[in-house]
Amino acid sequence: MGMPCEVNTILKLKPSQGYPARLEIGDRHQIDKDGYRIFPLDVPLCLVDEHWLAHADIVIEKLTWEHQTTHLQFRVARRYPVPFATK
Question: 3-class DSSP state for residue 72?
Fold first, then answer.
């Protein structure tokens, strides 16, 4: 029996998943994503909204799995002056 998981290099969040209302450099946030996911740690990743618009670079500092949920702690490393489409 295997463990189903996704490998992600972009963090896509909807408002219902905890997309931050405020993106300030250095701010830290915690969110949960359904399922088991693998993300690179300690490197900048794009944070995109539900429309695939990138607003910032974030750095995931902690990732844990529990009860088929991925728990992430990240900080905002850079804000883009203008959001851009990633898809």
Answer: strand
Q: Contact at 8 Å (CB) between 76 and 54?
A: no
Give me 72's structure tokens. 């992430």
**Alpha-carbon distances of 72 from 16, 21, 55, 64, 82, rounded to whole Å:** 15, 17, 18, 7, 25
Q: Give percent of the chain above pLDDT 70.
A: 99
Report which of 16, 10, 28, 14 is spatially closest to residue 75, judged by C-alpha positions.
28
pTM of the model: 0.90
Smallest CA-to-CA distance from 19 within 52, 42, 41 is with 52
* Domain 5-85 CATH assignment equals 2.40.240.20: yes
Strands 44-48 and 53-66: antiparallel
